[in-house]
Amino acid sequence: MVTAGPPRVEEPDAPKRDRRMSLAQHLVELRRRAIIGAIALVIGMIIAALISNQIIDLLTEPIRIVSNSRASDFAALNFNTVTAGFDFHVRIAFAIGIILSAPVWLWQIWAFIMPGLTRKEVRYTVGFLSAAIPLFFAGCALGLCVMPHVIEVMATFVPEQGALFYQYDVYYDFVLKLLLVIGVAFVLPVFLVALNFAGIISGIAILKGWRVAVLAATIFAAIATPAADVLSMLMLGGILIVLYIAAAAVSMLFDRRRSKREESFLSADSSS
Q1: What parts of the sequence cross the membrane (predicted)?
Q2: Where does residue 14 rank: exposed (0-12), middle (13-18), buried (19+ CB within 10 A)?
Q3: pLDDT higher than 50, residue 157
Q4: What is the 8-class DSSP label of residue 1?
Q5: What's the pLDDT tens digit per position in 213-245?
Q6: Cβ atoms within 10 Å, residue 263
Q7: Distance CA 245, CA 256 (A)
Q8: DSSP alpha helices (H): ranges in 74-118?
Q9: What are the residue boundaries of the structural domains of the chain, listed by start?
Q10: pTM strictly above 0.85
Q11: Which pairing describes strands 75-78 and 164-167: parallel, antiparallel, or unpaired?
């Protein structure tokens, strides 16, 4: 007589084995998610193309201010080829399309790599992204506020006899790089907290480096803004220093919680 054995217990790592894919399956999955991200980018570019005129008006407002300050056609955006106007609209649509479609393609990247992460790593990554994305956009918004002052101050160095024509592609690259640099600078404190979570640097070590941080923030603000625009430099540098101190405070709080967990774990081992 054959008796049934004990019920089979599913191994804890069985779901992980189910998620394993071959190289070909990985490539298919990567292609699928890349196509979804590309479609989202195209849709974002189409939406951006519909409002590109308003965006161009916003970005070129400093040029109009400079021109009106001289009461003449002193400053203007220069298009020197037949297709330059179309190219400018495409550049604007592409940049705004990337921003509008960011939630979609960021999710596609995240969904592709997420099966390889533990639940704890997933939770930390979501927390970092939730902090990094708003900070990046806040930095870009501050860059939009600083950008007109930078252009206006730089225009004051042009002689009265001269005319200032901004080449459209150079002007676009300047504005885009300024926004990206300030946006990325706002995200750097998040990376410090990530290094602390990984155990590479302690919160005390981050706090002790405040002198270097203040110097670096001041130099960065001085480079990102013209020397004559002291207000923008102080505003940018001050915000970066506050973010650095906040990163040190969060890291110190995490270190304290981690040390308490270690103490409780050691005490439990000694009592047993």
Answers
A1: 34-56, 92-113, 125-151, 171-198, 210-228, 234-254
A2: exposed
A3: yes
A4: -
A5: 888 888 888 877 765 567 777 888 888 888 889
A6: 10
A7: 17
A8: 84-100, 102-113
A9: 24-262
A10: no
A11: parallel
